[in-house]
Automatic annotation (TrEMBL):
Keywords: Membrane, Transmembrane, Transmembrane helix. It comes from Bradyrhizobium diazoefficiens (strain JCM 10833 / BCRC 13528 / IAM 13628 / NBRC 14792 / USDA 110). This is Bll4283 protein. The chain crosses the membrane at residues 35-56, 87-108, 120-142, 149-172, 184-206, 218-235, 241-270, 290-311. The keyword Membrane applies. It comes from the Bacteria. InterPro entries: Na+/solute_symporter_sf (IPR038770).
């Protein structure tokens, strides 16, 4: 009997390895698709509405896991370096939490959008008031950019959002929306603290080298989680398009225009720190965390606001695929400049 157990144990271990190897290979393959898979997510989310209905209750969990992956993969040495030189982090944080919502609010008010289309005005203000999307560092990493600076600025911006959001809501929204800074703040801080703790435990258990060695399947997991979030938000887009195609197309064009305007303006503002870093900051600023704003308002928003939120997922998911060649050129140029500086220290 003992011999039987001894003979079967290696066989059982082999079977377990085979079972786990199949999903691991699948996640590795998915991770290898990179930004192409991220772009496909938006179309899958629209094409399969029942998936959105099924996954909608898990938006908060998806946001938590995305941030956990970002914390888990951060370069701690680079993180400490940024914290020792806080001026750039402070500037990026001030721009995304104060500069962006202030400019959006003033432009929308001057143009009369708050009177002509209150739903769109509310959507744009919530977008401007939101912290950067928690998946922004992961998407930057998928594009080959250093995700550490966006992650640090994301954390500081998210910590300030309860205060800045309530300020700009009182300045521009009036009675259109009631936001509880305390509730929002506790939720944001809770998600950040829990995800940081979970990421720290994972790093301690498995080690940085193991996490780096399994980069490809971790990328695959990240893409699966992005699908959960996008499906939950975009499930009704097809129905809205059939009901009002021209209006839906117009809102989609506005979503793209806002995304690329934020990206371009931010990159130009921070170009003095190097275009690679500036581009990474621009990606962070252009990807706003509308999921948390939805959670803060319990989804009690006008239909037009919901539609705009859904259509913002298209530029978020397509831009990394479209902009990866630019990111690679900037990264290569930064590497060449760094080597030249090292060769010529004077």
């Amino acid at each position: 009997m003992v011999e039987g157990i001894g003979l079967t144990t290696p066989r059982m271990a082999s079977n377990l390895q085979t079972i786990f190897a199949i999903p691991l290979r699948g996640l590795t393959w998915l991770g290898d698709q990179g930004t192409g898979a991220v772009a496909a997510i938006a179309f899958i989310a629209v094409a399969v509405p029942p998936l959105g209905a099924l996954l909608r209750p898990y938006v908060t969990e998806a946001i938590f896991l995305l941030l956990c992956i970002s914390f888990m993969r951060v370069d701690l040495a680079a993180l400490y370096g940024h914290l020792r030189r806080p001026a750039l982090v402070a500037a990026a944080t001030a721009w995304t939490t104060i500069g962006v919502p202030l400019i959006v609010g003033l432009l929308a008010h001057v143009s009369g959008l708050d009177r002509s289309s209150p739903g769109l005005f509310l959507a744009l203000m919530l977008q401007g008031m939101a912290s950067p999307m928690m998946a922004a560092p992961a998407l930057a990493a998928l594009m080959g950019l250093d995700a550490t600076l966006p992650l640090v600025a994301l954390v500081t911006a998210t910590a300030l959002v309860p205060f800045t959001a309530s300020l700009f809501a009182s300045l521009f929204l009036g009675g259109m929306l009631s936001i509880s800074p305390l509730t929002l703040g506790l939720k944001l801080l809770g998600i950040l603290a829990a995800s940081l703790l979970a990421a720290t435990v994972i790093r301690r258990l498995f080690g940085t080298e193991t996490i780096q060695r399994h980069k490809r399947p971790i990328d695959g997991i990240n893409i699966v989680i992005l699908l959960v979030f996008a499906s939950a938000v975009m499930g009704d887009v097809a129905t809205d398009f059939l009901a009002a195609p021209l209006f839906t197309i117009g809102v989609a064009l506005l979503a793209f225009a806002v995304y690329f305007t934020l990206l371009t303006v931010t990159t130009l503002i921070f170009r003095r720190v190097g275009y690679e870093r500036a581009f990474a900051i621009g990606l962070m600023v252009s990807q706003r965390n509308l999921g948390l704003m939805l959670a803060a308002t319990a989804g009690a928003l006008p239909a037009t606001t919901w539609l705009y939120f859904a259509l913002t997922q298209f530029p978020i998911h397509l831009a990394p695929y479209l902009l990866t060649p630019i990111a690679r050129r900037l990264t290569a140029h930064a590497g060449t400049s760094g080597r030249a500086a090292a060769d010529n220290p004077t």
